[in-house]
Amino acid sequence: MQNRSIVSSCVLILTLNLIERVAGFYVPGVAPVEFSKGQVIEVKAVKMTSTHTQLPYEYYSLPFCRPKNNTIVYKSENLGEVLRGDRIVSTAYEVKMATAQSCKVLCHDPYKPMLWSEEESKLVASRIQHHYYVHLIVDNLPCATRFEMLDTNQPQYEHGYRLGFIEDGTPYINNHLKLILKYHTEDGINFRVVGFEVVTKSIAFSDLTFDGNSCTFPEKPKKQEINLQDNTEILFTYEVLWEASDIRWASRWDTYLAMSDAQIHWFSIINSVVVIFFLSGILTMIIIRTLRRDIARYNKDEDMEDTMEETGWKLVHGDVFRPPLHPKLFAAVVGTGIQLFFMTFITIFFAMLGMLSPASRGALMTVAIFLFVFMGLFAGYFSGRMYRTLRGNQWKKSAFLVSLY
């Protein structure tokens, strides 16, 4: 008994020790990053996207300001990020933790603006016409643009910031960014980034006033027009504003997860659902009436069953268990369906457990592709099993055929 109590005590101590270790465990790449005040924080660009074209572009596909010495650093990416079109690159923005920055020129000499050629100007104008958004990240947290709904006056957020806008047929670019960053700290020494908003503004070069590398502009400046007939003189500027926040690091993604898509066409969705149910009801009534009529005729003519020719639903019962003309093809299609079903089910299950965090960019697609390949084993097994059930002799070829569909 004494030995058992000693063993039980050892097991209890070991269990408590493991619990303490697990309490401090973080998934690699998802652990919080702490910064000290004044520490440099990288601002990276992900890509440019549009809901009108569904075609992403790299950040530097347009003539934006490049970092010092023209050194562009690309971040290594996983398979899911590559398939999503993400190309995470460094930018020329200089941001320091909990340190506000007034209007500052992003790159180049303040007195010598960038010159976009006619071709470059038309390219930027084309992206603006297609409503492209630019996506930036700070500490793996994407930027968001805040706006208010007219009917509810509730604040809403959308991913990224708009590249520009069009007024009276003239394209304008948002060349000034106000980066609003939020931090959370417990001890006043270690800071964590918990929010990233962007406020855009279009400011013509002629309305900018410079003092060294700093700049000022009037409250209502002229907008930066894109000249489609000649070179465009433009200068990119930015400012940084830090705000203390009670949001903890673990909850910093709540704002993005609660984003609502204002482009959801609820009327069309409801209309489609109603039509589907209506047509399903009509087909169900027709089938039931036909089946009842056939059954009533069969029961009436039971005495003449041997001489009566089979009609109606009796013609179906002979085809239910009859092997199809192409059993290999049928078994391969069923196996592929099982493969897709299990891939979708397991992916959704892991997502429900919270293991596919949105902070792990591209993880969802990577897991889905891995599961699709792995589930090919089960698809081949079920395909060969069904082919043998249909009395086939070449079940190996049937299992191999699944990989070709």
Automatic annotation (TrEMBL):
Residue spans crossing the bilayer: 266-288, 329-356, 362-382
Q: Where this protein primarily resides, as one coarse class?
A: Golgi
Q: Which interval of the chain is the signal sequence? A: 1-24
- SUPFAM superfamilies linked to this entry: MFS general substrate transporter
List the keywords (alphabetical): Golgi apparatus, Membrane, Signal, Transmembrane, Transmembrane helix
Concerning Pfam families, the annotation shows: EMP70 (PF02990)
Tell me where on the tree of life, at the top rank, the source sits. Eukaryota
Topology of this chain in the membrane: Multi-pass membrane protein
Q: What InterPro entries does UniProt report for this protein, alphabetically?
A: EMP70, MFS_trans_sf
Where in the cell?
Answer: Golgi apparatus; Membrane
The entry assigns this protein to a family as follows: Belongs to the nonaspanin (TM9SF) (TC 9.A.2) family.
User: What's this protein's name?
Assistant: Transmembrane 9 superfamily member
Q: Which organism is it from?
A: Limulus polyphemus (Atlantic horseshoe crab)
